């Protein structure tokens, strides 16, 4: 089947923008994606669109795909919304890749958007809760912080890890996010800050949790048959993998791994013909600090239990051998649910084209993005490749 | 790109089943789809799933794709929810076709589900309303009956049509639905019944409106490379078309046509290499009686303004030249939002295999399904072909 390429990608700043509508945010992200296409692209060259969103707030809950694309001036194309909780727009990019590989589209628009800060805390809690396992988690009072706290407790108990390792994730990601003008919490924090913050759900404290953000991201995917019309520096989708897992944590055999991440990674490596050691940088789903440690292991960057050592050795620092979350990650860059996965792809696109400014990783060829829905009910991994001399 | 085939499809009865959960309903539909595969299929042969749902009620609003597939015993596969209001599962089948054509799946499960009758009328109104144009339709008090009433008024004003033609749609579809054991309102009605019912939104009365239903439908799509393992009587997806249109009616140039339906039909015919005259039967989206008249015209069964004559001549009756809604349509069979599009495909599959019992159309080769989201913000058309002697 024909190859798929990313020819453009962009995002809004992530942050607290309660006055922006989901349509206005997505338009900004789309405009940035269009501007990033070296030879430009006309709106009528986009064959299809799929937009990831949980629909937080429930305003345009139905038909928000078509409602968003009409706002972009894209009339009459197939347009729909995909939902997979926090993995919605990672899945949207995967779907755009399928549309292109299927031959049914030459250029497909993917992306995601969420507006979360224009409502009360109670409402936000409800709208986040609906992605938990409803019958036996949400309705019994378990929050996502609570679910990830159970994973963190199990991890700290099983392996040679401490809460300091959780805090080191926050320190690293904030240091990176401070270099990212699109970051929601773009400030540095010290290890002391990140150790002494108030508890949210023990052992997770405030610095072990990502913020509630607004934002949008957009990605343009093109087939190998047309890619040369748009760019001489395309980013190839070398491999995609996706998987699901039992939504409720209590139904899983192990709490110290996310099986959907593991399977999604394996599939993506397999399709790309690569292994973890080929990856030059990664954007992983650090909704809570423990999730970044699990991601290192589930994606094969180290063996089970090896994540603390990677942090101790600075391997995943911006100047380490395998920078992780150069963007700041969900922790510092922010986490507007439906926009997060496409935002990771937008960051990887920027890094692979050497345009990430102060947070640029050194001369990368392969970047990996890892997007998780809920506590791992869904996961999707993309491996992107900078093609040289096409 | 390789061809896609439907190897199995099934649905629950549509109706009022407030005690059934979305997972239990979807399991029933899935089991029926699996049973319909002539040589059978093992769960581990299903590579991917996409489930259409609006998520009415907002209970498992996030991750309901993975939550549904885990309930089926399908572990670890890519699974997501697609939303496009009432066209959600028509789009889900299209997405399964893309997954198969892309080479990323050999067998993909599509389908849809909705539970709507377990809440108050006010809540149902809210959950239907969220698929209207939010800012300028829903929040100003316009319901879907109101939107379609505006289309009906414009149509009756413009063409040589009367309210009796709207009622004739109800009479025909109830006559068909009375032959369908899966129909929600499986009883016949007289023209007098359908003329004298109380108004809902003039000129639409109660018999010009479909019911609020619970239900689920599931469709198994396979690639040409594996189809022979499952069946000697596959149904080929000859063509698919999808389109979007301005969500708010007030933003459209014409009220007497749904442009997204027209474009989706044209694309599907084009991809299939067929025209409207090749179609042997159709399932069209008659959420309101006027919608069936518009569908005749938008799908090319007649010229603009020609729908009343088709009804007068009995062309779309079960024993006519082009039976439409042999299943009973949304009007009699029922309309569980997210399940409707896949339910149409399940009906067409049954018809093409000659297993539709009392409502069987005569020896069909090509069947068309037409699924609309909201008042036409989205539309998707499938043309299915019975392959003989494969």
TrEMBL record, chains A, B:
Any single biological process term in GO: isoprenoid biosynthetic process
UniProt KW Plastid keyword: no
Residue span(s) of domain Thiolase N-terminal: 5-225
Gene Ontology molecular function: any one: acyltransferase activity, transferring groups other than amino-acyl groups
Keyword Hydrolase: no
Thiolase C-terminal domain ranges (all copies): 242-386
Keywords: Isoprene biosynthesis
Pfam families: Thiolase_C_1, Thiolase_N
Superkingdom to which the source organism belongs: Archaea
PANTHER family, alphabetized: ACETYL-COA C-ACETYLTRANSFERASE (PTHR42870), NON-SPECIFIC LIPID-TRANSFER PROTEIN-LIKE 2 (PTHR42870:SF1)
Protein name: 3-ketoacyl-CoA thiolase
Source organism per UniProt: Halorubrum saccharovorum
């Amino acid at each position: 089947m024909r190859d798929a390429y990313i020819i453009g990608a962009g995002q809004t700043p992530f942050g607290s923008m309660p006055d922006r509508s989901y349509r206005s945010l997505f338009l900004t992200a789309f405009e940035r994606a269009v501007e990033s296409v070296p030879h430009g692209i006309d709106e009528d060259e986009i064959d299809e669109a799929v937009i990831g969103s949980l629909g937080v707030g429930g305003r345009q809950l139905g038909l928000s795909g078509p409602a968003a694309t009409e706002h972009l001036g894209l009339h009459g194309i197939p347009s729909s919304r995909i939902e997979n909780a926090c993995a919605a727009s990672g899945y949207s990019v995967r779907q755009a890749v399928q549309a292109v590989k299927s031959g049914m589209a030459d250029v497909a628009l993917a992306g995601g958007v969420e507006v979360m800060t224009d409502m009360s805390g109670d409402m936000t809690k409800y709208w986040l809760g609906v992605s938990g396992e409803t019958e036996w988690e949400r309705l019994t009072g378990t929050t996502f912080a609570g679910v990830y706290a159970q994973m963190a407790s199990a991890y700290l108990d099983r392996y040679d890890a401490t809460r300091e390792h959780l805090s080191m994730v926050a320190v690293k990601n904030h240091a990176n996010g401070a270099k990212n003008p699109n970051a929601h919490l773009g400030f540095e924090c010290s290890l002391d800050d990140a150790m002494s913050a108030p508890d949210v759900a023990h052992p997770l404290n405030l610095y072990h949790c990502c913020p509630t953000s607004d934002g949008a991201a957009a990605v343009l995917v093109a087939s190998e048959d047309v890619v040369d019309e748009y760019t001489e520096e395309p980013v190839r989708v070398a491999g995609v993998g996706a998987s699901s897992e039992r939504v409720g944590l209590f139904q899983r055999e192990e709490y110290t791994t996310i099986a959907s991440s593991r399977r999604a990674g394996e599939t993506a490596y397999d399709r790309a013909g690569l292994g973890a050691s080929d990856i030059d940088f990664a954007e992983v789903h650090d909704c809570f600090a423990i999730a970044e440690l699990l991601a290192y292991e589930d994606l094969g960057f180290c063996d089970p239990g090896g994540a603390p050592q990677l942090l101790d050795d600075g391997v995943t620092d911006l100047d380490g051998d395998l920078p992780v979350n150069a963007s700041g990650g969900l922790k510092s860059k922010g986490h507007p649910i439906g926009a997060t996965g496409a935002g990771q792809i937008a960051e990887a696109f920027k890094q692979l084209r050497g345009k990430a400014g102060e947070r640029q990783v050194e001369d990368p060829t392969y970047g990996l993005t890892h997007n998780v829905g809920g506590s791992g009910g869904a996961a999707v991994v993309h491996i992107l490749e900078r093609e040289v001399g096409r």
